[in-house]
Amino acid sequence: MYTDETILTSGKYKFIKLCRVPADYLLGFHKQYNPNNKKADKELFEYIENNVEKIKARQEGKIISPPLEMAYKITGRFVQLVCKDSNKIFFSSEKDAKHEIRRIQNLEQENKKPVRAYECEKCGGWHLTSISFEQWEKTKEKKI
């Protein structure tokens, strides 16, 4: 059963907690849901159905997403926002994180380069990782 903390694993908002997925998107999904479509996400529909009033309130600005938790790190002349939990650089959006991945991919270096961005469960920001989603899922399966 999905909750606000559930991270989507497919679709336009892949790797995003439901509490941060735009309300317009969720309500649009709810409106267009077709139970006969075998690929339709029934659990997502049920989550929206059970939380439709809260989602509408978020759409109207009456409820805001949970606050992001972060710290500051000074490196040279720069101040960076970092996750308190992982100490990774904090990006406020997936778009910003992916832009940084493209920038790093163009650098000549021998270090590992990030291949994807993900939303942090702890701080709610976006981080970069050199671990592919497939590798991450395999690691997660071994822990279970």
How would you describe this protein?
The protein is an alpha+beta fold and 144 residues long. It contains four helices and four strands. Strands 1-2 form a two-stranded antiparallel sheet. Strands 3-4 form a two-stranded antiparallel sheet. A hairpin with a 2-residue loop joins β1 (71-75) and β2 (78-82). α1 (23-32) crosses α2 (42-59). The longest helix has 18 residues, at 42-59. The protein is globular.
Features:
globular; alpha+beta; 144 residues; single chain; two-stranded antiparallel sheet
β-strand number? 4
Structural class label: alpha+beta
Oligomer kind: single chain
What percentage of the residues does DSSP assign to strands (E)?
5-15%
Shape: globular
H/E series? HHEEHEEH
- Count the helices. How many? 4
Helix content: 25-40%
Q: Which secondary structure elements does this structure contain, and how are they paired or packed?
A:
Elements: H1 23-32, H2 42-59, E1 71-75, E2 78-82, H3 94-105, E3 116-119, E4 126-129, H4 133-143
Antiparallel strand pairs: 1-2, 3-4
Helix pairs in contact: 1-2
Describe the structure concisely.
Helices cover 35% and strands 12% of the residues. The chain has helices at residues 23-32, 42-59, 94-105, 133-143, and strands at 71-75, 78-82, 116-119, 126-129.
